[in-house]
Structure formats: C-alpha cells, structure tokens
Please model this.
Amino acid sequence: MTFLIFNVVGGDPALQLAGKYATPEQVESIRHELGLDQSLFHQYLDFVKQTATLDWGRSWQTQSKISDMILSGIGPSLSLTVPAFLISFFISIMVALFSVSARGALLVWDRAISIFCLALMSISFLVYIISFQYLFAFHFRWFPLNGWDDSLMGRWGYLVLPWMISVVVSLGPNILIFRTAFLDEVIQDYVRTAQAKGVSRMILFGRHILKNAMVPVITIVVLQIPFLITGNLLLEAFFGIPGLGGLLIQAIQNADFPVVKAFTVVGSILYLFFNLVADLLYLVFDPRVELR
Amino acid sequence: MMAFTPNGLRRPSAIISLTIIVGYIALALFAASGWLGMDFASTNMDLSYHPPSADHWLGTDFLGRDVLSRAIHGTKIALLVGFFAATIATFIGLTLGSLAGFFGGWVDDLVVWLYTTVESIPYILLISAFAFSLGQGLSNLFIALGLTGWVKLCRLTRGEFLRHKNREYVAAAQALGTSSFAQIFKHILPNVLHIAYIQYSLSFIFAVKVEVILSYLGLGVEPGTPSWGIMINDAKAELTRGVWWNLTAATLFMFVLILAVNIFTDSLRQALDPKSKSQVASV
Amino acid sequence: MKLFLVLFLSTLLLVSCTSKKEPQGDVVVSVLDSNIPHLDPIHSMNKISSTINGSIFEGLYHYHYLKRPITIEPALASAMPEVSKDGKKYTIQIKKGILFQDDDAFADGKGREVTAKDFIYSWKRLADPKNKALGWWMFDGLIVGLNEWRDQMRNGEATYESEVKGLKALDSHTLEIQLTRESFQFIHFLATPPTMVMAKEVVDKYGKDIVNHPVGTGPFVLEKWVRNSEVVLTKNPTYREVYYPSEGSEVAKKKGFLKSEGRRLPLSDKIIVRIITERQPLWLAFLKGELDHGIIPKDNYDQVFKNNKLKKDVADKGINIHYLPRPDVTFIAFNMEHPVLGKNKNLRKAFAAGLDKEAILATFYNHRGLVAQSPIPPGLKGYDPNYKHPISYDLEAAKKYLAEAGYPEGKDLPVFDYEMSSTSTWSRQYGELLKDLWSQVGINIKLNANTWPQFDKKIKTKKATMFDMAWNADYPDAENFMQLFYSKNISPGSNNFNYVNRTYDELYEKALTLQPGPERYKIFRKMVDIINEDVPGIFVVHRIFRLTYHDWLENYYEYPIIYDHLQYYFVDKEKKAKLIKKL
Model:
C-alpha cells in the first residue's frame, strides 16, 4: 500500500539527485540507473524480492546501506522508549491501584485522579517538549539540553528529560486503562469470596486483582511499543537522539523511497514481534492457570 | 436496546463539559460567519510581538497579527478537523467492522487483513503517505486522518458482532426470516453503538491533537490558515525570548476543548458502557 | 514489582547526577543546523557537508582564512598555476611529501604520499557517471576529453586506466590540464570539495561505503560520526606543516585574530560538531554554553539586540556577534512559461511594486542585509552599490500596473499558486506576509508548502507558477548569478525562471570570453537592465547572517565558501572557566 502511495507522490528522486545544475541527459541516466523507468509492476516485484531477503540496498539520499542505518537507529530508539515505557507502566499501575482502592471512602481521590489524567492528556505533545526543555534543561539547568553519547554508559544522562516527557505524556491514558481493567476485576465473584474469607486488602489488590487485570492491559499496552519506537521523532529532533523516528521522517521528507519501503517492513516486524510478546505474557498471567 | 442511562450524563462534570463544547461550537460558528476574529490574517509589522494589552487581549504574533483572533479562528479549524475526521473514521470502522463480524468468511478475512496491514505500518509513515498523496489543505487533512483512524473501532465492532451474532435474539430474528441487512440494523448495531459513540469522541480528540504534529511536519492545513497546530509550531522558538502568549493561547484553547470532550466522553462511557455501569456500584 | 520501581528511580537519580561529559584536551564544540547525508567530497555542494569534508580533505587551492575580499592561494599546489597565453593550458606543481591520513586501506595502515595521479583519479571519479556526482557540473564540458571519457565509461568502453587527453601527469608532482575554453572559474573550482584529492586504495577498499569513510590529507581525521547527532574530528598527526596566517583584513586585525600568527595548525586537538536541527535547543544550548558558537533564530533577535546593537547584559556575558554578509540573493521567481504570468509583463511588475522589501528586511532579517536591486550580491566584483531597480515598493503604482495588465483592481485575475521551498515556520510566515501584501494590491495567491523534493520536482518540471528561492555564489564571480537567466540553463538546470531572451544570451556568451574587468561588468550591467525590465523574478534581499559565539572561542571568522575553517578555531580555557559562570 505504501509502495503505491509513495510512487505517486513525494518528488522525483532522479531530479533531486541531479542537483541544481542538472541537465536533461543526466536526469534520464539517473532515472534509468534507479530503475525508475521500469514499469510499476516490475518495481513492485523488486520490492517483494527485497522484502524476502531483508536487503533493501542503499538509501538514495545518504547512499549508505539501509540495513546499517536502521541498525544504528535501533539502539538509541530502544534506549529512549523502553525505560520510559517501563517507568510509565509502573507508576500507572501504582496510581491506578490506589485510585481503585480509594473508591468508597476516598472516592474524591479516584475522581481527582481521573480528571487529572484527562487534563494531562489534553495538552499537546509538542507543548510538553517545548516547555519542559525550556524549564528543566535551560531555566533550572537540571539536565543537558541536547546531545548524545554513543557509548552505552554515557547516553543515559541525555535521556532522563526525554524519558520524563514521554512518561508524563503516556501517564494519563495508561492510568485510565489500568483503572478500568482493575475495576472490571474488582466486581468479580472471587474478590467477594476472598473478602469474605478475610484476605487482607493489600494482598487482594497487590496480588490477585493485579495479576488478573494484566491480561486486557497487556494487549493494549504492549502493542503501543512499536508505535513508540518509530513515532518518537519529536523527542529525537529536540533532544538530538539519533533514533529511528528521525531516520523515518527524513526519508519521508526527502522522498527516499527505498528507506520508506524498508520502514514499512520494519514496522510490520516490530508489530508481529510485540504481538508475540503479548501472547507470551498471556501465558504468564492467564488467570485460568492460576488462582482458581 | 440500550437506552441512555441518564445517571452518568446528569453529573455536574458532564453538564459543564457539554456546555463548554457547545460554547466552542458557538465560537466556531461566529468565526465562520465572520463576526469574530476576522483580522486573523492582517499583518502589521510595527506590532510584532506585542504583549497582551487592551487592544490585543492575547497580544500579537511575529507578523503583528492578533493572537486572540487567530485562536478563535483556530477553533473553527479544530472543530472541522475533529468532526470530519472522526465522522469518516467512525463510518469506515463501523461499516467494515460490522460487515466482517456479520458475514464472516472471506469478507472477514479481507477486513482483518486490511486492518492488520494498516496497523502494522508505522503511523507517522501512514499518515504522511496519505497527506502527501492528497496534498495539503483542510479537507485533505481530515480525509487523511479519517482514512487512518478507523482501525480500533473496526476491531471492536467486529468483536462485538462476533459476540452478539449467536445470541438468542438474533437467532430468533433469523428464524422469523428477517433479511440479513435488517438483522444488522435492527438488532446488533444498536448494541455496538455505544462503542461507536466513545470511539467517535476519542477520534475527535486524536484528530485535534495530531493536527499539531502534522503541522510540525509541514503536513497540516494550508499556510495562511491559523490552526492551533500552526500557532504552537510558530511558537516553537518564541518561549526563549519571553513570548509566552502565542503558545499559551493556543495551548489553553486546545486544553479546555479537549478536556471538556475527554470528560464528556468519560461520562458517556459510564453512561453507555454496560461494563462500566456496574463499576459505579462496586466496592 | 515495587523493587523494580525503586531500582528504576534510583538509577534515574544516579544517571542524572553523573551525566556531565567533560572532554579532555583542546576541544571545540561546533554546531551545524542540518543533517549530513554523506561524506563524499564529490557530492559536497553545500556548506553543511563541506564543513566536514573541507576539514578532512584538501584541494590544490583554498581561500586565505583572514583576507577579505576573499583571496585564493595554494593549498596542496606549491604555487599558483602557470597558465598558457590562450588561457586554456594549466600547469600545476604539487607540494612534495604530502601524506594521506593513515588508514587500513594503505600498506601497513600508513598513508602514502600524494602524487599528480591521485588528482587525475579523483577527477575521473567526479566524472564517472556511476557516481552521479553532484559536483560534476563544474567540469562538464570544460576539460578536453573528460566528457568523452564519461560517455565511454557509461558504455563500458573505458576504464580508470584509459587516458583523458586534457588530464596529464607530466611527472609524479606535475599536473597539466587542457581546457576546452578559457575559464575564470576553473581555479575557483579547484578550491571546492568535489575536486579535492582522494586515494584509489581507499575508494577500492570501502567500495560504495566510501560515503561513510572519508580519508584525505587535511587537518582532521574522522573519529566518529553518529548520523543525525554529531561528528567528531581529531587532529591528523601526519598533517603537512601549515602555520596560522600573518596577514588579514581590518576586521580580523581588530578582532585580534592575528594573535595566533605563526602557530602550527590545527590549533585544536578535537572538534565536536553537533548536529541540532531544531531552533529552540540550538539556541538554548548556545546560551547555556554547551556550544561554543551558534545561530540566532529570527525570533530571538530582540533577545540579543537593541537598536541593532548587542545588548549590554548579553555582551557582558561574553557573547559576541559575527556579521557575515553572504554573496547571495533571495528572490521570488515567476515561471515564464506560465500562460498568464509569463506573458504579462505588467502583471509581474504589479507583483514587484506590491512587495514591501523593506518590511521583509525589517522583520525577517531584523534590518540585517540589503534590499536587492539586482541579482548580483555585494562582495562580488561587478556589484554596483549605486544601482537602483526601476521598480520600488509603491502600492499605487502596483495597482496601476495591475490595471495596465488588464486586471483593474484584480478583476478576473486568477489565483496564483505560490510554492514555498520548505515546510518550515519561517517559510510559512514569509508566505503569509506576501499573501497579505499582495492582497492589498488586489492579487490573490494560494500558498503551497512543499518538502524539498516536492519543490524541486515542481520547479524542475516547470510545474510551479511562482516560488521563493535563494541563490548562493558557488564561486566568487558575478557570472554565477548571470547564468541563472541563460536560456541553455532552463529547467531542469539552474534557470528555473525558464527565462529565454535572445539578446540576453548573446551578451552572456560574449561576457564569458572576456577577462574580469570593466568591459565585462559593463555587459553584466546591460544584462541586469534587461532582466529588471522583464521581471522574471523579484530580487528581495542580500542577506547578512548573524552568527553568535562565546568570547572564549578564538578566531571565529566564518565565510560561506571557506571550508577549512575548523583548523583555525580554539578555545581559551581560562576565559571559558570565567565566562561560563556568568551564563
């Protein structure tokens, strides 16, 4: 699908590669060399072949191997995404548990948390980035403004602020999702039984409800990850992180078709992978195996 | 059929948020009819970056244009984008989802294949592909958003259909010889509508927020149209020189609208979703 | 699970405390505001890639760092070329003992000596059709036999061993170049990255990956390149003996740039070139002292300047400004093949008279720059400061032109598509201003934002109606601006106006055969008159860039076509220690 769409639009790579002093002869020969003068069907066959072998050749814009470019972007992208995701995940669980257990006597808290989450969700991502960067990296000087260290140990300092922003943005929706999942569990029969048996509230929430609520939560939450990985282009651009989002957006903006093609495949692979992860996590959390 | 459960919607928060939404719609109508904010495009170089004053309540921007007028005009754009994008997405999602769920077989396979494909392509790539192929402009923007935003509703609708399909009342209807078309509309659809309502407002919020990101990528509405996304993007480097009003105005306008829709959706969810209804009584 | 949380929060705290990275030795932190696609000199046609390529590679000639107007002088050549009487034969001696940087591609990993053959090889590489070199236009049709070799290469009839008549190595260190015609640009071409010298062994070893493995003879070697993030350059230990210049312009003297006189280059051990594409972090990182120099976004002018002077509190912090007049012109071009716009001179004049260039200069450039009267920018010979464009901003005149064009008060006038060359905020606001200005005349335009490829396609396939653009001098000669209107250069070439005028062409061809001098400039003047009467475009401004730097960065003297500038920079550490506390 993307194959077709990008063939119709974007730009003419041959014209672009010929530069500002192009001659018609040069444009023609480049077009021939890139295979752009072949039929769409022919080009499509090439695409299928490349996908099967995972060898997409070279980027038109950078002339580097696409597989190398993507490999070099994966590390930074994961360093940005995964910790932020986990932090957000844990905070969300804690807050949601508190929120649900606060229903009853402390109902006000539950309401307040919900509204607060909705409020967090009502501000644009871009606004968070602009203002957090200004406040925390510049005004208060708590964090470096922008930069990247390629070594595994050196990079974390640059990542704290991007993590923070990413956590703040994802906190709202995550807490609400967890809260709903927990509420669905709270009304189940086994909870009443357990309460009647005198199981302490702490254990009830901390163990049983948490575990059972994981199943619906996992589907929603784990499947966010592939989008986070390729979708962090704003954070990458503002904080100078050389990840996949930036590569993707440059490819789109420069009509770098081979890279775009590669990304559709990488996207699918990530998608399949995290679907698999979700399935595996089901096995771990399946309530039918445990508890009853 | 589920009726509106008035409980959730009679809450003060729901009423307030609905009032706010209506207020925004009124504002947009005023802007559209030319009563408000018409000077959004008139530049005045001598007034560049004037802070809020009696003449310009929310100050002026780089080209000396009135920020309040631009924000009001942006309301119109935001509502249009949200409304149309959500409508298109809901329509596609509901249609495909119910077809797949009802007919099963190859129709189902096709729809499932379609949405997994759409879902597996990185969103930013998908939306840029659509935005590029359609070109810039307001109508193209919401078409692109609509064409990419239907997956979740489609999946949920299909699921609900599969759940309801084998219930007694459908079987009963089938026994009475009702045509399949009538079956969908009379019996099952009302049961999945509550999902559609909620997804509709979620799509609305999503569209308004994504407009900002698309403006950042230069794929938003056409230049010259003052959308909130464009205002926020204009303000990207202004904060450092102390110009906070452009960013604040757009953010605030957007914040109040989205919060209102969010709260309203939340109330709607509580009112309509059978699962959530039981939540109210629990623990 | 709680344990995990605690663990996470504590690592978070830990890393945030230990984050400061303090580099050792003499380090300069420089910055570029755009991504580098590749580091192959033959494609290096913009300041961004050329800044890095120019630090790693060297050509036969280069520009003197401190002299203005800029002056060409030998780099790897041992003297200025001997040119035959007819101006077509160049004999150039190459310095002895120049070594390529150490690389695994060479025997024992030690760089070998550069010979005349390396230059011939490198220039063949530039001509090789397989390489699709962006810099090829410079040699296209200029060197005897090179175009023929290029054609033969395309058909597989030639190899790199095949002889090119116009490129000869008389001995190991003497080059003889035969040109097809006299050319005053040729020597300047030899100072640009595409003609810089590369070693065959290195190209052969890395194959297509040569784009990521630059190995030259220059002051720095590439230590690390993290795409979209930073380039780290370290001192080349085998760099030839070069010393800091002892002469310079008045500005250079006043700024104390001559204090480094006689020191061996490069002055720093390491240059970290950060790549920051977003304006806010770029500016804030500079203000915070994370960068040694920076670029002021247009929105932040007022933060630094008051009445065009550096503010006192800014100056007290040790922040300095470098004014950089650029040999360029920004313009709004009309497509002369457009059925309405191309045929109606008065309509184009209405556009021109309705454009308030002063307002643009005031807001978008904060008064820094000159309103353009012709395509020729100041700083180039042939520029006449007293020349005035026949049309200036006059709303009434614009309305009159519009009426004469057959559209009184804009009646029946179609809406014109205006193509913006980027999707940036800057482009958009610029377009919005134009739209508002012209609507006062009665002309309506529709703004279209484009990514560069979309824009490029539209102008090169003649689909654009009108568009904005800027042209920077690729070599310091007014001819580079005159060729923009030559009919043989129409799209996809550089004449994107698609302007065709027989008289103009004849004058242009005549000027090409003349020595730089009064007679040539007289012809240029006539050509400018023709263009300004025909209005194929509106010349808006010649820009003066304002670059900021901290006082601790010494010898910061940027110029658009000087590419080996990084070797002259160094940081005064004592000053830095003192000043950074004030930021």
